Amino acid sequence: MSNLSDADRLRIPVDQLAIGMYVVELDRAWTETAFQFQGFRIRQQQEIRLLQEICQYVWVDARRSVGIRQQARENQAAQEADLQPLIGKVSFSAEMAQAEPAYQAAREQSLRIL
Description:
40% of the residues lie in helices and 15% in strands. The protein is α+β, with helices and mostly antiparallel strands. It has one domain (9-88).
């Protein structure tokens, strides 16, 4: 797997798995599963069901997968779009005005302990 580039190694939620995808990594240790090999091409729906029972997501090698490269890339792009932080932007000075009292209180507590 060392020659596998990040562009070819895609994190896929198990509800989006398809026959033909080549699974290279799980979200848990392979030894915690019934799979005999570390890395395999999904050939049967039963393998997808088993992955769905034990994992939330897996990593797929797009180069070694059959007929899913574009689909996997679209899934990855959609997933990355969903990861945008939902935090509102605040100016530095406004954040410092709020953080300063908390910092001072924590500092005073730590000095009392020492």
